[in-house]
Amino acid sequence: MNQEYFMHLAIQEAKKGAVPYGAVIVKDNEVVAAAYNTVGLDSDPSAHAEINVIRRLTAKLKNPSLESYSIYTTGEPCPMCATACIWTGVSEIIYGASIQDLILINQAQINIACEEIIAKSFRNIKVTKGVLKKECLALFH
Question: pTM score, two decimals?
Answer without folding.
Answer: 0.97
